[in-house]
Amino acid sequence: MEHMDWQTPEDSFPTDFITDAQLRALIGRPPISGAWRDGDPVGERRFLPIGTVTTEAGAEIPHARMAYEQFGELNAAGDNAILVFHALTGDSHLVGPAGPGHPTDGWWTEIVGPGRALDTDQYCVIAPNVLGGCQGSTGPASLGPGRREWGARFPYLTIRDQVSAAAAFADALGVARFAAVIGGSMGGMHALEWAIRFPERTERLAVIAAPPVTTADQIGLNLVQLEAIRSDPAYRDGDYYDTPDGVGPHHGLATARRMALLNYRSFTELNERFGRAWQSAVSPLGSGGRFAVESYLDFHGNKFTRRFDAGSYLTLVQAMNSHDVGRGRGGVEQALSTVTMPTVVLGIPSDRLFTIDGQREIARLVPGNIDGDEPAVIDSPFGHDAFLIEHERVGEQLIRLLKTVVETAPERAHSPS
Predict the structure, then answer these.
(1) Which of 298, 280, 297, 277 shows the shortest CA–CA distance to 288?
(2) How many CB atoms are located within 10 Å of the residue 332 CB?
(3) pLDDT in tens, 149-192
(4) Full-model pTM
(5) 278: which DSSP letter?
């Protein structure tokens, strides 16, 4: 079995021991940033300018651009589009092989395609890279004013800012209303926020392994990752893009990634897979050897620096910290009471990142929940990333949602501000 890391298709296979060949593959200097940058192969990306984005805090991002991929064709009526939001380290590449312009295979290949749950013979599936990301949409690694990378100048973004950019993207694309809006993990935050902001543009909603608010515990876990990057001297307060290859904030980004990986799977999986096994014949008990799990986490932390950008990682994690659907709307209950379109809320009991309590709260408070007061549940040993692994079971829930009949002119409460 090919070994994968987590949160992309590379992330969607069970853990395994690291081989010498895999370790040799990472010999050599990593690039300054793993971001897609102008001049790199475009691959299957498309681009749309969305004009100037003004953030909640009043900052402006002029000449913003969204990268996206499209699977299937928009029909003449324009009513068969599905919007998919990606997770923290995902991107627009839902389907297709790794290759020039795409560092990883598509992360939902078993979900999206002809005859699959999101059937591209019937639907036009659209996946943008979020604002602030590093795979083609405007972010810290993009060229900004003065024709140099935004770097430290890139403004703080909230989930709401990113959803505003997604709405501008949909406008530029010419899609007034989506047959479904779907997201998992960070993407679930975007999908839920979209449904609250734009109910008239949302026929159906799927919120997968995402909370109604980012809790203090989650913010605390995120802080340690953020500080790992900020404390790397090569980060240079975010202005590192003019340094030579191999001199970027790789150590900090790799450390942040290792911390995150520990929360993406259930607490039993690493122990069941690795136990106290050694990586080699050399003992880790004072003889200079390593435990297999240490080698595993190091490998994937180092590999991650070749496909992601430290500045984007900070931007997106900080946006996740901002997530609170009840902020300025009279609280979570009031905000979720406006979500009346047919909705699937999918939770994973073994998830220790966004625990199922969050999905239970959403399910109980969303009037459109097609399962009453409870979330749909996937019992899986794979924790948070089960939504990337349990394709058949996730697909069943999405098919069930898409079969739900939507009224032509549904009566809905007005969106809160």
Answers:
(1) 280
(2) 18
(3) 999 999 999 999 999 999 999 999 999 999 999 999 999 999 99
(4) 0.91
(5) B
Residue in 185, 295, 312, 322 annotated catalytic: 185
The strand pair at 60-71 and 124-128 is best described as antiparallel
- In total, the chain counts a number of residues equal to 417
In which residue are the tokens 């395609």 written?
113
Alpha carbon distance 235, 232 (integer Å): 5
Place of tokens 């902001």: 197
SS3 assignment, position 148: coil
Among this protein's residues, is 351 annotated catalytic? yes
- Give the Cα separation of 257 and 55 in Å (integer): 27
Long-range (24+ apart) CB contacts under 8 A made by 410-413 are 410/340, 410/341, 411/340, 412/199, 412/200, 412/338, 412/340, 412/341, 413/199, 413/337, 413/338, 413/340
Of 91, 105, 232, 351, which one is the catalytic site residue?
A: 351
Confirm whether 63 is a catalytic residue.
Answer: no
Runs of H (alpha helix) within 275-403: 292-304, 310-321, 332-336, 356-365, 386-389, 391-402
Neighbours of 267 (CB within 10 A): 11
